[in-house]
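Entry 14. Ran structure prediction on the chain below.
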Amino acid sequence: MTEFKGFPKDFFAFFEELEANNNRDWFEVNKPRYVQSVVNPTSEFIVCMAPRLNEISPHYIADPKPHGGSMFRIYRDTRFSNEKTPYKTHAGGQFRHEAGKDAHAPGFYLHLAGDGLFFGGGIWQPPGPQLNKIRDYIADNSRSWARITNATKVQEVGGVKGDSLVRPPRGFDAEHVHIEDLKRKSFYIMTNAPVEHALEPGFVDEVAEGFRRAAPLNRFIAGALELPF
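Output, structure tokens:
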């Protein structure tokens, strides 16, 4: 496997300065630094993650391209937001299921910010038809779902999370043993880590372990959506 050297210290220094200078003029002057300190090491991380991700599942994509790959763009979508600053002050990536371009599918995720790191997997706010399939699958496979949610490694990081409805969704028994999970609109398992971990070569293996922790959840969701895992 290709070895990861760790993110450079300037990775987080760049975002700290960007937060204080979140405008196009500053960014254009510092764009070469952005490429050197953020884009290139993130691409290297993705390259190093690819074989580790393939060991978890061959159906998830680790694409190191700066545009259109696993790396998130730095440009914010300000069209529907009251926050009009043009740039994100964190970096991250999504390792999508191969079906992700054609259908809403589970994925693995990495978030790198100056106030902390988190990584894991799941599905974020799937549309109604897919969400109902997941809920039906939980209701029909209660024991399998319990094994995932009650696993020690999952409980160590706070369990399965996701924003929820106030009331049980229509058509589901309010007394179901997993009603709190059936109320969820998203399902994910995330591991948190301090910022300094990203500077170490072993960070890529730490993230891979976080992905493995979330893998049973993604396998379950893939089963609900009739996708391969």
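The radius of gyration is 19 Å. Will compare against last week's run tomorrow.
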